[in-house]
Amino acid sequence: MSVRTTCAYCGVGCGIVATLTGERSVEIAGDADHPANRGRLCSKGTHLGETVGLDGRLLHPMIGQRRAGWDKALDLVARRFRAAVAEHGPDSVAFYVSGQLLTEDYYVANKLMKGFIGSANIDTNSRLCMSSAVAGHLRAFGEDVVPASYDDVDGADLIVLVGSNTAWCHPVLYQRVRARCAAGARMVVIDPRRTETAEEADLHLRLRPGSDVALMNGLLAWCRDHDALDRDFLRDHVAVPDGFWQQLADGSDLWSVARACDLAPAELRRFYELFVATPRTVTLFSQGVNQSVTGTDQVNAILNVHLATGRIGKPGAQPFSVTGQPNAMGGREVGGLATTLAAHLDFSPPSRALVQRFWGSPTVAAKPGLKAVDLFRAVEEGRIKALWVMATNPAVSMPDAGRVRDALARCPFVVVSDVVEETDTVRLAHVRLPAAAWGEKDGTVTNSDRTVSRQRAIFPLPGEARPDWWIVAQVARRMGWRTPFAYDRPAEIWREHVRLSTYGNAGERLFSLAGHAAGGNAGYDALAPFRWGGTPFADGRFPTADGRARLVAVAQKPLAAPLRDWPLLLNTGRYRDQWHSMTRTGLAPRLARHREEPLVELHPDDAAAAGVADGGLARVTTPQGETLYRARVTDAQRRGELFVPIHWTAQIASGGRTGRLTRAQVDPFSGQPGFKSCPAAVDAV
Ligand code: SF4
User: Fold this and answer.
1) What kind of architecture, by CATH, is found in domain 568-684?
2) Is this prediction's pTM over 0.95?
3) Ligand 1 centroid vs 151 CA: distance in angstroms?
4) Global ipTM
């Protein structure tokens, strides 16, 4: 039996043909018909078959350390949430969910929290990944819409990769970038590190971390001064705030920008000239832009350049935010961020009335909820009385994770639904609920270019595991809302989600799944990949009140500075063959060969100053904590900067616990933490 499904890992969203070869074994091949990958897979996708065993799986509901039946566990969860709401109000409870959830799971969780409990305290680990892109899109376009598609990469003559080690983090998309470059396109990489991606670039700008706004404002000023603005597009389709161009004049000349970014003026000029000379430019950006305390401004600095030069809504000319997780986009679509209500709608009275009418709910959240960092602060301060964590491991992955771990330990009631029996977060749960894993569940995901694909079950549900949508709906029914959560199949949830996307004022939104309700269950089973929204902005119209996009005045803020006792800056990121906290990739031995242990990468001068030898053990310390790594001394790092991976946890090793080091400073607009430049020190062990 062969099943067409979608990869479990990153936002590229590759289609897979999975062929069952035994009770719990499967052969994996790329789906040649899927538009995201056309048959290609990277190492992680290729080895998915090694990760489907049942070792370490959570297979039964647990209350404390005792096995419990589903009824008992679900009754307890419903009772504790209901009691907290009754005694302390709706904002005393919270859900922390994940871009690993399928859209149908996300939809039901969002509906329960925002529509029936009446709080918007549902946030997602996607907050840590791309929420600055969301905030930037909203400011510039009026709606959170990624205008680009992978076809734009195929049609670009210049591909600018900003803050993205695409070769490692989005490998199949990178294969398209390389193929386009082999056909003559140029590649510019803007990244403080000399990554594998940067090594293949025509031009690598190793800018000072966090100086992206200066660099992009400089590019915009250069375009203006070299007659490269699209004045017709600006006049007809873009609102420019008063004083925008005067403000841009300050510090945006080539020499000032080069100084601010720590770049040679000649290399900066080369980039600017290349951009001006190449109308078909795609600027692809990722976590290096988003994971910053000025992430939203950095996003808008990129969008400003594309809007002002008319490089948007045209084949091969687009800004392109690339997401990390397989369904970060699906979560955005249902409203799984605390800052959105549902289906790209906000918390305005008309939107609330519309959603309340559609859901037939008693109340709808009146204001945005707590964003991830604030949510765990509220847990720490005792304001959250009941918390439900779904498919994620915040005790490892949140910034200043040790503090989050302590907060969870003090929370009166923690529920975790997960596929894994033992993680740093699961260990702190009062109730553990066994969720269905990839290969066992049915639903949809949306990838980085808005292609919606089906994930399909290959195996029967093991033990007592159940899909997340089922678990949430069962709790909702026990809380008293039987009819609104009377779902029997994910197809019913999908059709409701499609209807909400076209309900009421749908004409004012770009997000619409019209025409994709997919009929009955058979239609849903057969649902083929599709992109919603067509080619947004091709007609120059934007989903704002006046139909115009907005240039947003952004200025370079002071850069993160080392501290006296922490004279270096710590950057964090992914390895090519690992994923999140390794709960899945750690099961595939062949994936460990690429990087067997966590490394701290540092410049030879910093290593010499700290007495750290290449291959020796090194301790990295920040104001938040310390942990050990194997040292790699390399001039791929800039002087004064360290790089460490995010994947290792207490289950895997005593060292490499990066979450202990990062700090919980966030971007003021998006609430996204700045994971890329934390003051740090290193010494030899
Ligand atoms: Fe999976 Fe991403 Fe690799 Fe594609 S590029 S196979 S979606 S991990």
Assistant:
1) Beta Barrel (2.40)
2) yes
3) 17
4) 1.00
